Amino acid sequence: MKIDKIEVQHVKMPLVSPFETSFGKLLEKDFLIIKIFSGEHIGYGESVALPDPTYSEETTGTVSYMLDAFLIPLLLKEEINHPDDVTKRFAPIRRNNMAKAALEGAVWDLYSKKKGISLSKALGGVSSSIAVGVSIGIEETTDKLLSKVDRFLSEGYKKIKVKIKPGYDLEPLTKIRETFGYDIPLMADANSAYTLADIERLKEMDPLKLMMIEQPLAYDDIIDHSILQSELATPICLDESIHSVEDARKAIELGSCRIINIKIGRVGGLTEAKKIHDLCEKHSIPVWCGGMLEGGIGRAHNIAITTLPSFTIAGDTSASNRYWKEDIIFPEVTLSRPGEIDVPTGDGIGFKLNKEVINKYLLTTKVYESK
Ligand code: OSB
Ligand code: MG
């Protein structure tokens, strides 16, 4: 695949409603759109990093710098034949997984477009529609939370994930159970807000019969999580702690979790995401696709990876209108049926870019010509 040119566009879009987690509140998101030009094809990628280094150490700014100073020059240095080659090419660069994934995702899209197949098919996906859930932030009042749960349940979302933190945990979760019963698929995400000192509090959540509790302990821990999991009936799902198939192997061997949330950006791209999926399949660990409040391109990549067979739990990839007044892709992502998104069948990600929307929110464009 001969690359002619790479374009990086920086956009900033307001969220339809503020999204609050144990690490902070987000009102808008600035992110990068990557376009890789090759002959008559363009591959699209998106940097999923948040504006601040609060979820992980990466930010839109660090991604932009890494692309500019290291990753784009490396990618343009020599022709690549398969997207897996990108992971190998980037291997000498430590971490910066979201920066790597932004470019690698664009290469995967380009590769599938050149083959004339969908990205889902190129990845080995098997399903024609995916089950999806919704992630609800920390709300100002329990009433506001309950009304959001009610709305998303009525839209058919197949998993309700609620953000929790110490002091905002048992009470809102219990209210949800009292109001909607024990049959609704409910889980909690702590984004590393607890320590082992909170073990009794966390054990009190067992009677709530949550599907899982996501990343209760430190963002870089798998040891304490294994201690907690041995004491907890509720399955632990790791998010922040898993950056590679090696991290996943160690967490599974230690018994640090029973479920893994796969985020393409956090693990450095689709090739690594697929490896984690395959390892989890071997160990009967169910996986699901997490989200980073993506724009439409990132969302499209999430849809494609979710078609692999071990993505048996509904992911966080909700419809475009749950995040944005208008999305950067056309058509926008909508629910095809309650709680389900049909996988696009067109080549690559299967969505076009909405230039009008992109231009409206555009901050800068950088162009890198191949020599
Ligand atoms: O921890 O899964 C998380 C959003 C930003 C950063 C981290 C997380 C999240 C979400 C929202 O939970 C997922 C989504 O709807 O995109
Ligand atoms: Mg999470």
Automatic annotation (TrEMBL):
Please tell me which top-level EC class this enzyme sits in.
lyase
Q: SMART domains per the record?
A: MR_MLE (SM00922)
Pfam families reported in the protein's UniProt record? MR_MLE_C, MR_MLE_N
User: What EC number is given for this enzyme?
Assistant: 4.2.1.113
GO MF term set: O-succinylbenzoate synthase activity
> What pathway, per the record?
Quinol/quinone metabolism; menaquinone biosynthesis; Quinol/quinone metabolism; 1,4-dihydroxy-2-naphthoate biosynthesis; 1,4-dihydroxy-2-naphthoate from chorismate: step 4/7
Q: Where does Mg(2+) bind?
A: D189, E214, D239
Signal peptide from the UniProt entry: none
Q: Which Gene3D superfamilies match?
A: Enolase-like C-terminal domain, Enolase-like, N-terminal domain
Q: Which InterPro entries match?
A: Enolase-like_C_sf (IPR036849), Enolase-like_N (IPR029017), Enolase_C-like (IPR029065), Mandelate_racemase_C (IPR013342), Mandelate_racemase_N_dom (IPR013341), MenC (IPR047585), OSBS/NAAAR (IPR010197)
UniProt-annotated catalytic positions: K163 (proton donor), K263 (proton acceptor)
Q: Which SUPFAM superfamilies match?
A: Enolase C-terminal domain-like, Enolase N-terminal domain-like
Q: Which keywords fit this entry according to its UniProt record?
A: Lyase, Magnesium, Menaquinone biosynthesis, Metal-binding
Q: Which reaction does it catalyse?
A: (1R,6R)-6-hydroxy-2-succinyl-cyclohexa-2,4-diene-1-carboxylate = 2-succinylbenzoate + H2O
Cofactor(s) needed, names only, are: a divalent metal cation
User: Where in this chain does the record put each Mandelate racemase/muconate lactonizing enzyme C-terminal domain?
Assistant: 142-235
- What CDD domains does the record point to? NAAAR
The cross-references to PANTHER family, in alphabetical order and at most eight, read: O-SUCCINYLBENZOATE SYNTHASE (PTHR48073:SF5), O-SUCCINYLBENZOATE SYNTHASE-RELATED (PTHR48073)
Q: Which family does it belong to?
A: Belongs to the mandelate racemase/muconate lactonizing enzyme family. MenC type 2 subfamily.
- Physiological role: Converts 2-succinyl-6-hydroxy-2,4-cyclohexadiene-1-carboxylate (SHCHC) to 2-succinylbenzoate (OSB).
**HAMAP family documented for this protein:** MenC_2
- UniProt name for this protein: o-succinylbenzoate synthase
Q: Identify the species of origin.
A: Niallia hominis
